[in-house]
Design a protein that fits this description.
The protein has 193 residues and is α/β, with parallel strands linked by helices. It has 6 helices and 7 strands; from the N terminus they run βαβαβαββααβαβ.
Length: 193
């Protein structure tokens, strides 16, 4: 017998016992915990994924998000819902962007911090001139593709909301903090719990 997932805006009772609990840095250790808990969660019905993070590795956040997307496609009778608690910074916002707006919730007072990806790299140029050009181009390509990936995440985050990409691109370089109720007003989340 298949159990269908609840539809529409969820009430606080739906978040009483999240099936997946994640806190701390978004890193490979969190990814392992996430995968273990996701495997143990029911394949139908509601699955709440609770997260609190000050950030971490954006590529790990994207891996977790792709798992959510894949599982949502694979099991349409399962509703995966994001519950952000206290702080959803940086990579946490990237992970949240993989959930449809109707499946994004924040607890009261939670802050979402949206910022540009950062790079810390030295470029040392030495050798034949053509090799030097190739080294510079390689770093330039890394920057260009990192910006494209970052902007894909921003587009996912604001899709269906009143926030424009222009606004995100203007505010993200300065670390944009959005409080839970403000996020709801902007249409970035379904509700505040």
């Amino acid at each position: 017998m298949s159990r269908s997932a609840p539809t529409g805006v969820l009430t606080a009772e739906a978040f009483d016992t999240p099936r997946i609990l994640l806190a701390g840095a978004v890193d490979y250790a969190m990814y392992d915990r996430f995968r273990d808990q996701l495997a143990e969660a029911p394949k139908t019905g509601l699955t709440v994924i609770e997260l609190s993070t000050l950030g971490g590795d954006p590529e790990v956040a994207r891996m977790m998000g792709e798992d959510v997307r894949f599982q949502s496609d694979l099991n349409p009778s399962r509703r995966l819902v994001f519950l952000g608690k206290a702080a959803i910074y940086s990579a946490g916002a990237t992970f949240m962007s993989f959930f449809a707006v109707e499946n994004r919730y924040l607890t009261r007072g939670t802050r979402v911090m949206i910022h540009e990806r950062k790079m810390d790299k030295e470029l040392h140029i030495t050798g034949p001139l053509t090799t030097c050009i190739a080294s510079v181009k390689a770093v330039l390509h890394e920057l260009e593709h990192s910006i494209a990936i970052q902007n894909e995440g921003f587009e996912n985050l604001v899709r269906g909301s009143s926030v424009t990409m222009d606004e995100v691109l203007k505010r993200a370089p300065e670390n944009w903090y959005v409080e839970a109720q403000e996020a709801k007003t902007m249409g970035l989340i379904a509700d505040v719990i």
